Amino acid sequence: MSEAHAKGRHPASRGRTRGKPQPSPAPSAAPSPTAAVVPDIRPGQSVELLKELHILTRDGKLNQDSRRKLKQVYHLYNFIEPLLEEVMSARGDLTLADHGAGKSYLGFILYDLFLKAREGGQSGGHIYGIETRDELVAKSRELAARLGFVRMSFLNLSVGDSIESPELPEHIDIVTALHACNTATDDAIRFALHKRARFIVLVPCCQAEVAAALRRHKNESFGKTPLSEIWRHPIHTREFGSQLTNVLRCLLLESHGYQLTVTELVGWEHSMKNELIIARATGQPRGNAQERLAQILAELNLEELRDRFAY
Ligand SMILES: C[S@@+](CC[C@H](N)C(=O)[O-])C[C@H]1O[C@@H](n2cnc3c(N)ncnc32)[C@H](O)[C@@H]1O
Question: Within 6 Å (CB) of ligand 1, which residues are found?
Answer without folding.
Answer: 100-102, 105, 130-133, 136, 158-159, 178-181, 184, 187
